[in-house]
Write a structure and sequence with these properties.
5% of the residues lie in helices and 40% in strands.
C-alpha cells in the first residue's frame, strides 16, 4: 500500500477478462477478498469512482465486475489503473506493534544514539519479507529488512523509528 494525499492504494486493475466487461484485479489488503467491502474505490486524483459488483477468486488475482463496465472495450480502458480509498476508511488496528505500512511513510529514521539517518520513503515486499526503504538527505536510498532486529522501535506519536543497520560485509 502506498499513500498519496491521505489516500491508500489498495488495488490495481489488470487486463480485461472475457467479453462482458470483467477485469482482473489485484488486491493489496491484508484480507484480499475484503477489497469489495471498502466501499467506492477511486483513482488517485479522485476524479473517477468505482464500485465492485461481484468478485471471484482466480489463480493469483480476482476477477471483478465493476458497476458501469459492460464490455471488453470499457474494461480494457481500465488496465493498470490503481484504486484508492481514504486512509480514514481502513479499519483501526487494535494489536500493539502492528502498523499499516502507510503510517510509516515519512517517519524519521534514527540510530539508537539518536543520529538521523533519513526518512522512511516506502515499505516493499518482494515476496520473501518486508523491506523498509530509508531516503537519506543525500545519497542513495537504504533498503533494510523490516524486522524487529533492524527496526527495534516504532513510535508513531513521535514520528520516528529506530534503525539498527546490519553489519557491513566485505
Amino acid at each position: 500500500m502506498r499513500p498519496t494525499h491521505g489516500k491508500i492504494c489498495i488495488a490495481r486493475i489488470g487486463a480485461a477478462h472475457g467479453v462482458r466487461g470483467e477485469v482482473k484485479l489485484w488486491s493489496f489488503t491484508e484480507d484480499p477478498a475484503a477489497i469489495a467491502r471498502y466501499g467506492p474505490l477511486e483513482t488517485e486524483d479522485g476524479m473517477r469512482r468505482f464500485e465492485i459488483e461481484a468478485l471471484r477468486p482466480a489463480k493469483n488475482h480476482f476477477v471483478a465486475r465493476i458497476t458501469g463496465i459492460g464490455d471488453r472495450d470499457a474494461a480494457e480502458k481500465l488496465r493498470n489503473l490503481e484504486l484508492y480509498i481514504p486512509r480514514s476508511r481502513l479499519p483501526k488496528i487494535e494489536e500493539t506493534d502492528t502498523f499499516y505500512h502507510a503510517d510509516l511513510i515519512g517517519l524519521t529514521a534514527v540510530t539508537k544514539d539518536g543520529e538521523t539517518i533519513g526518512k522512511v520513503s516506502a515499505v516493499h515486499n518482494f515476496g520473501a519479507s518486508d523491506v523498509i526503504e530509508i531516503k537519506p538527505a543525500a545519497g542513495d536510498p537504504l533498503l533494510l529488512p523490516f524486522t524487529e532486529i533492524t527496526v527495534p522501535e516504532i513510535n508513531l506519536a513521535a514520528r520516528r523509528i529506530v534503525i539498527v543497520p546490519p553489519p557491513e560485509t566485505e
